[in-house]
Amino acid sequence: MDKTIETLQQWIDESERVVFFGGAGVSTESGVPDFRSVDGLYNQKYAWPPEEILSHSFFAARPEDFYRYYRDKLIVKGVRPNAAHRYLARLEAAGKLTAVITQNIDGLHQAAGSRNVLELHGSLLRNYCSRCGKKFDADFVQDAADVPRCPACGGIVRPDIVLYEEALDSWVLEESIRQIRQADMLIVGGTSLVVYPAAGLINYYRGHKLVLINRTATAYDGRADLILHDKIGEVFSALK
Description:
The chain has ten helices and nine strands. Strand 4 (122-129) and strand 5 (135-137) form a beta hairpin. The chain is of the alpha/beta class.
């Protein structure tokens, strides 16, 4: 077994409050596009850049174009949890992992069996009427002919995700900070740590087992206690 894998396994075995903080790289192995990879959504050409389309002001001004992009690019059908999702669910079931903090909006951690999942950017699986608050499932939005509207009040039904120009949910943010502060081991995986305020959360970690697992280097590599530049699914598959 590789020395870094041996160290990672040893630290997990010794720890009692492991927290995992993950980004898009956790789901790319399930076939979900990475927004910032070379072939990701941020490098494709549209009439507007993705950052603009996925903003609150664009959604309010051009809902038809927002939902055209939403159905074309954000909805990826048939995806299933991969080895990383499944390992984290097992780690939680074993009483080792206290929380998964994710920047992803695909719900794959819950599909794998994880229970305490803190979704910083919301979820595409939840939707609500922007006028009356009535809740709807993903199929209602996906199957709408154009802009989905609430049958009760006529308001636009939107996905429960955090758009650009919108603040993170205060409870989710505070609970994420609490979990990281109390962690005796923090594993950060599949994220380039460039999206704030989410990336800044790891600054709340007070321990000495900060593990970074990412295919490329990050700005936080110099602070890590252990670094693995590999696919996260392959790393977790090597663990018991």
